[in-house]
Amino acid sequence: MRHNFQELSILGKLKEKTSDFQKRESQLDELNSFPYDNFNDLKKMGYTKLTLPKEFGGGGSSLSEFLACQEQIAKGCGSTALTIGWHMGAILEFAEHRHWNNEVVSFLTKELRDGALINTAASERNAGSPLRGAKPSTTAQLSADGQYYVITGEKTFTSGAPVLDYLFVTASIENDDRAGVFLVSREAEGVSIRETWDSVAMRGTASHDLIMKEVKVPAGYLNEYVTEEKKSRRTGWTLHIPACYLGIAGAARDYAVKFAAGYRPASLGKPIGTVPAIQQQIGEMDTLLLASRHFLYGVAEQYEQHPHHHFKEEIGTVKTFVTNQAITVVDLAMRIVGARSLSEKNPLHRYWQNVRAGLHNPPMDDITYKMLAERAMKETETE
């Protein structure tokens, strides 16, 4: 994996901040908490604009470079990595597809260059997953003079809610069979956040509800319609999800290895890392992490080298494989450390909670397995 000079500089800064992020992570156990200090650090080093194309004042980072940074952030704080990943990924998607309309590009790229944060708001309570075809109940009505849309509705899983500046909101357009994606300012009248996020896993993402009551949005901020072309767009940027859980697993592994090298029970008289059973567990962790990294970054490299190949199955499989291996790594780390891994002061119990959140990020395991099975069955039809 090749790195450009700027990315190496940013990655080095992220490594320097890993210890600080780890020390702060326990603060995120509190309800309605958020890693404000971590986000301030990321802004100061220019990370939030790393995936913005260079012609708009960004870093022009590649997918592989982005993933390496995300993995490093997650070693310090999983919630920080997953939250900033949605922002960075939305920009990287634009860098690849240039699907924002001219008015949105002209306005939003300047805001992002200056440190603004953005996320997509698509999920709705009791509506099902957008990936499974759920139509938004949030509505957008064009004004009589055609100058603006009035948006009303609620969205769930709005990660980074306390610090977002803009959102891409999916809404059904009234008197139109189509749905659209609208750029909405967090400061617009009628926009508010309902603090509903009480998950014990990834609590620091602050994925609260977004409430919109008759929010006026300029007509030019209808960024795009939800079409089959949009649904079939390449989504390499979503690999930030498994990169996050790989980072968490790496942090758990590092903690367990350091513990095994330093813990000397009186009955043993030497570090438990010298015991064959512990060595096997360490070897298992490293095997799973090595396989996961090669799979993740191998697919990312192929994705970059073959812009006309979709990689839908590969991306889904990476997410499923890496996330499940990360869960196993954290479990092995806890077995090495023993009962003290469940102590409130021990980071492993937090890693264990956070890494399991990956099971509920898209695509879900059943979607990936179904996709692979359907491809396998089609292959038999052509034989």
Automatic annotation (TrEMBL):
Needed co-factor(s): FAD
Residue ranges annotated for the Acyl-CoA dehydrogenase/oxidase C-terminal domain, each copy included: 243-357
Domain (Acyl-CoA oxidase/dehydrogenase middle) ranges: 120-215
Domain of life: Bacteria
Pfam families: Acyl-CoA_dh_1 (PF00441), Acyl-CoA_dh_M (PF02770), Acyl-CoA_dh_N (PF02771)
InterPro entries (UniProt xref): Acyl-CoA_Oxase/DH_mid-dom (IPR006091), Acyl-CoA_Oxase/DH_mid-dom_sf (IPR046373), AcylCo_DH-like_C (IPR036250), AcylCo_DH/oxidase_C (IPR009075), AcylCoA_DH/ox_N (IPR013786), AcylCoA_DH/ox_N_sf (IPR037069), AcylCoA_DH/oxidase_NM_dom_sf (IPR009100)
Keyword entries, A-Z: FAD, Flavoprotein, Oxidoreductase
Keyword Oxidoreductase: yes
Molecular function GO labels: acyl-CoA dehydrogenase activity; flavin adenine dinucleotide binding
All copies of domain Acyl-CoA dehydrogenase/oxidase N-terminal, residue ranges: 23-91
Family: Belongs to the acyl-CoA dehydrogenase family.
Protein name: Butyryl-CoA dehydrogenase
